[in-house]
């Protein structure tokens, strides 16, 4: 869910709101200019805002919502989205991943970013990667994403559309049972939430 | 004892170190970009390193309750390698990021013309980005290196009170102090200061503008020397307040000049309580 400018306004200070107004104006300019914007080494103004959101907004959660809104407003082209992700801080990468549902990218352009995020070991990035955009993952990649969440301690509730997609998925059920068996054999606890997902896979099967 | 290690290369350290540092009182640190021991051969190699200082390392540190910030720069050693210098053109894209609290480590290694150029250019970048600068003093020919460093700082548009000159010792502290810069001391086995010499320097010059760091890296080093200095200070009769000033308030004041210090390393509760990643997702 995109946090709107109006919603953000209520949780930011006066100073941060003034900053956000001009940041969104910069993002609007970028969207209007499209490919005619600054090129080469000149950094577009909205990208400077995107980078500075944390210190300008104060509150980390609001800053992330601001970054997503800036991406949504500036509508960067797929190559720029990929660059903002690849050369982003942890916060910036999560914002790009969270913004994917609102950006004009084809699955062929968006999926590699999600796949990269799922390869990481940063649980915050993994949690972002299993958001709504993960619906475009194929069955194999999606099952491994769910398993990785359980493996790394990301609550399965972070997986968007889990109940629908896991329903009756016998292969996911097998993977979860094998993982649980491995943990039990090692004398280690089975992660919270595994039983819940396993129950989903057994339903409607 | 709350500790802010203002100079430590966590990239080269294990999670055991993070644990031990937290147990010793370390709650915040700054990781300056530096030489990795293995030469880089392309600017992209720096960018991957910067990305790690802005993503992976802060995440790793947060798991152990430590706030991680970094300083970014082309280091003096690799400033001499034309395969690396193009990274200077990429720095502006990185210096704007949250989590970057200074330009650094810059300074001299062998005092070459290429190092002159890189130092002046990066002091200018610091001024242009409203960032302070972390300038190290060379391992060899230290006093001459300090003097040349202070000359270049004086010629730059970065005010000297926004410069931290690091790796100081008994032979360089006096001139550095007179210049008005912030004073960094690395307490590092064999090659730099030890905690007892550090206490003697503090006795002579006082705690004003003094920062103490471990400079721990891939060499024979110790990430807990900051704590050892705190204890040696108390044993020598310094007050708790003096210790707090040197080990916490001074680094907060210096890196706070960036306006980008965020000292709460808290992670989202739901993730923090879970079986978060240790040793590659175990
Ligand atoms: Zn260093």
TrEMBL record, chain A:
Name recorded for this polypeptide = EboA domain-containing protein
Source organism of this protein record: Streptomyces solicavernae
Upper lineage:
Bacteria, Bacillati, Actinomycetota, Actinomycetes, Kitasatosporales
TrEMBL record, chain B:
Coiled-coil segments, which residues?
Answer: none
Please name the InterPro entries in this protein's record.
Metal_Hydrolase, TatD-like, UCP005295
Q: Which residues form the signal peptide?
A: none
What keywords are assigned to this protein?
Hydrolase, Metal-binding
Molecular function terms in GO for this entry? hydrolase activity
- Which Gene3D superfamilies does the entry mention? Metal-dependent hydrolases (3.20.20.140)
Transmembrane feature ranges: none
Family designation: Belongs to the metallo-dependent hydrolases superfamily.
Q: What is this protein called?
A: TatD family hydrolase
Q: Which organism is it from?
A: Streptomyces solicavernae
